[in-house]
Description:
With 403 residues, this protein is α/β, with parallel strands linked by helices. 39% of the residues lie in helices and 14% in strands. The chain has helices spanning 22-29, 50-62, 66-69, 79-88, 106-118, 133-141, 158-165, 188-198, 256-269, 275-285, 288-316, 341-350, 380-395, and strands at 36-37, 101-104, 124-128, 145-149, 151-152, 155-156, 171-174, 204-208, 233-238, 250-253, 320-322, 330-335, 353-354, 356-357, 370-374.
Amino acid sequence: MSDDEGASYPWSRRVAGLKSSVIREILRVVNRQDVISFAGGLPAPELFPTELISRLASDLLAAPEGRQALQYGETEGVPALRERIAARAPFPAGRFDADEVLVTQGSQQGLDLLAKLFLDPGDEVLVETPAYVGALQVFQFFGARVTFLPCDGDGVLPDALAAALRRRPKLVYLTPTFQNPSGVCYPEARRAEVRAALAGSEVLVAEDDAYREIWFDAPPPAPLVTGLDPDRVVYLGTFSKTAVPGLRVGYLLGPAPLLRRCVLVKQAADLHTNTLGQHLILKLLGEPAFADHVALVRDAYRARRDALDTALEAGVGDQLTWRRPGGGMFLWARLTGGGDAAEFLHAALAEGLAFVPGGEFHAEGQGQDTLRLNFTNSSPSRLVEGVERLGRAMRGWAPGRRP
């Protein structure tokens, strides 16, 4: 159905500017076997712990609690899973208890709940530059005024954050650990500076930490919100990157009064996160083999990161600039000679290579010369072949001219 065909429906004002993420649109195009995709943020399916999950599911469904795993559950989440999440969160022991944990449908639902609770049309939200597209979609859907804060290779600039806080924004959204899309991981010194800028502010700070366990060179520092006013921070996480995304199990940690309101909003949306998925994640977390699996994923992604980095240096090192990410799923690059990466995408697709133009992660009209490359969903040899295709596209492309 075209947009014009739906024009007679009495749409609400909030959906007037609603549009699909360009990433989802690109993924529709690149499902052909002859296309190598650096576009999606997909984990490697061949690394999923399918045998372990199969065994755990069989054991679970044969056990007395199997029927409960198929039944309706508490909105807050399975109590034992909430306790396990609180215990394994990367904070000092006892920082969170089960009453301060809400199990969500991936961390994306946590963003949606926060937006529903706090954002009225016109409210200001501070984000990094570049910023996660999924968060931008949520904030813009609820009519927020999104302000992109300047960043450097160490993260958001503390002085710019401090200046923006004087306007008393409603929410600060930060992804300081292997950020999507930039791959930046704030060093401890920058985290301390950002904490200092936030200290004393009444703004709510949301830290999205989806990639913490996917580190390659060194474990990341403690979460940025560590040490801030506990009544003014929320922390979002997910098991989609280390277990499997299809179970859709994430979590939101925060003060109990805030979470009680989140529960009410979640009840209106889906009653509860899928119970079977929660029980399987709980079983996974109790398995020593799961820690081995996470280490295997980390090693495999490190090798893929290195393959992409090496191939780019050898093939297009004079045409792109980038910083090798220390973790996560993405390499962020810039066209050395300038130009529009969205325009260049047409040349790349003609060669059978897809990526995401960086303008999607910026304020409108900015970041056109940047692009995001995913390395986790392709084998090292496939990554090398993808860079060869990228190089051929670059040799045949000139800014301002489509192939």
